[in-house]
Each structure stands twice: as structure tokens, then as C-alpha cells.
Design brief:
By secondary structure, the chain is of the alpha/beta class. The protein has a single domain, classed as Rossmann fold (3-Layer(aba) Sandwich), CATH 3.40.50.150. It binds S-adenosylmethionine. S-adenosylmethionine binds next to helix 1, helix 4 and strand 2.
Length: 225
């Protein structure tokens, strides 16, 4: 129910925002997006095949490609305008390919050492996404999911709410971002993605670990096959 309605928000949030996303994610996270992506990269120690789900404009996809120049990296996203930006910004990389598809439904012949998904979990159904990922993972491979979490500490929560209220006000003046900046805080408050994906990964036989980042403002979940 939750995942189904969250998925309906994807076109509202992203259809019109691809060309301005990189700036908004940087300012909107007070620069933490870079740090969070560096923590995802830290978890990727070796390997030759990488799948970046919900790759968006390809920020993380290119960082993986830079770290593993001889690896093959595939980026998948459901929003064409984001993939258009990703392709344009990745012209100089010959080890990245992009596919327009749904992370819950794609079917590829290849299997991967690592499957990443940053800011994806809250939009998907954990059972469906994890099942599809496990089917595309090599033995010993890892699924690394990252997304916002609602901080548990009351003081941090207060600051978080204050900042998100400010972003909502900003959203009133930027028509293409209005839906996302107003809708995202509500979605982050209600999502239980970390617990639900962790449970599903364990049930699927994966070894699971997780790590909160920046006082619980986001988290990384790792499942090893
Ligand atoms: C906030 S952006 C994040 C982009 C990128 N992962 C990053 O960290 O910069 C969220 C992306 O998730 C994509 N998305 C949401 N649901 C998806 C799904 N079911 N399959 C593929 N992409 C999805 C959206 O199209 C959007 O590009």
C-alpha cells in the first residue's frame, strides 16, 4: 500500500526536474549527498560488473566508473529526462551504458558483482525489488541501498523539520520542484524502508548490515549473497 502510493509520486517528482537535479540534491542535502555517495563507494571494494538502479543523472554511476575504469557499469532509471542528462554527462565514459526501465521489472541476461540504488528504496516494494536484485546478483555479490531516514534523536529531528520546512518554502517559488520539495518530507517521515528491506533481505538468505549516516538523516543497507 505504502510502496504503491510512493511509486505514484515518481513521475510527479522527477518528470520535470532532470536538468536541475544535480544542483538541488547538492544544496538540498547541505552538501551531504557527496559524502553519502562516498560512503556507498567505500562499500565497493572490487568487482568487474556494476548495476546502478535509479541512476538518475548518473552521479554515482560515474563515480563507480571512475573507481573501476576496467569494469562494466549499467545505469537503469525509469525517468527519461534524467537518463538524457546522465547520457550527456557520461559521454567521456566508454564503460557505462544506460537503460530506461523500472528497477522492479527489468530483466537482463547478465549478473552483477554490485547492485546499488541511492534514493530508490522508499519508492519501491521491498519484496519485489530485492527479489529482482537477487536474481541479477553473482554469488558473493552485494546489494547496496541508500536513502533518507527520519532522524530518531529529538534535537536532530527538530533541526531536520526546520530545514525541510525551509525547503518546502523554497519549493513554492520553483514550480518544477514544488511537488518534490513539498512531498518528500512527508514520504521520508512515513517510510520504514530500512527495517522492511533489511527483513526481506534476511528472508532472501542475504547477510545484512547497515549504517546510519549524518546523525540518522540517511542510511546504507548492504545485503551480501
Ligand atoms: C532522487 S533521484 C536519485 C538519482 C541517483 N540515484 C542519485 O543518487 O543521484 C531518484 C531517481 O529514482 C528514479 N526511480 C524511482 N523509482 C524508480 C524505479 N522503480 N525504477 C527505476 N528508477 C526509479 C527516479 O526516476 C529518479 O531518477
Amino acid at each position: 500500500m505504502l510502496a504503491e502510493s510512493a511509486k505514484n509520486l515518481v513521475p510527479k517528482f522527477f518528470d520535470e526536474t532532470g536538468t536541475t537535479y544535480d544542483g538541488v540534491v547538492s544544496y538540498g542535502t547541505l552538501g551531504k549527498d557527496r559524502y553519502w555517495k562516498s560512503k556507498i563507494l567505500e562499500q565497493i571494494s572490487d568487482g568487474s560488473s556494476f548495476l546502478d538502479l535509479a541512476c538518475g543523472t548518473g552521479i554515482l554511476t560515474r563515480e563507480i566508473a571512475e573507481k573501476f575504469p576496467s569494469g562494466k557499469i549499467v545505469g537503469i532509471d525509469i525517468t527519461k529526462s534524467y537518463l538524457d542528462v546522465a547520457k550527456e554527462n557520461s559521454n567521456s565514459f566508454d564503460n557505462i551504458s544506460f537503460i530506461l526501465d523500472d528497477a522492479e521489472k527489468f530483466k537482463l541476461d547478465s549478473k552483477f558483482d554490485y547492485i546499488t540504488g541511492s534514493y530508490l528504496p522508499k519508492y519501491c516494494d521491498p519484496e519485489i525489488l530485492v527479489k529482482n536484485c537477487v536474481g541479477h546478483l553473482k554469488p558473493g555479490g552485494k546489494i547496496i541501498l541508500h536513502d533518507f531516514t527520519y532522524p530518531k534523536n529529538p534535537a536532530v529531528r527538530g533541526l531536520w523539520n526546520f530545514f525541510l520546512t525551509f525547503l518546502r518554502l523554497v519549493g513554492c517559488f520553483i514550480p518544477s520542484w514544488k511537488d518534490a520539495l513539498i512531498g518528500l518530507p512527508k514520504l521520508i517521515r512515513r517510510t520504514k524502508w530500512l527495517d522492511s528491506y533489511s527483513d526481506v533481505m534476511k528472508k532472501s538468505g542475504l547477510k545484512v548490515s547497515s549504517q546510519y549516516l549524518t546523525y540518522g538523516a540517511s542510511a546504507i543497507l548492504i545485503g551480501t549473497k
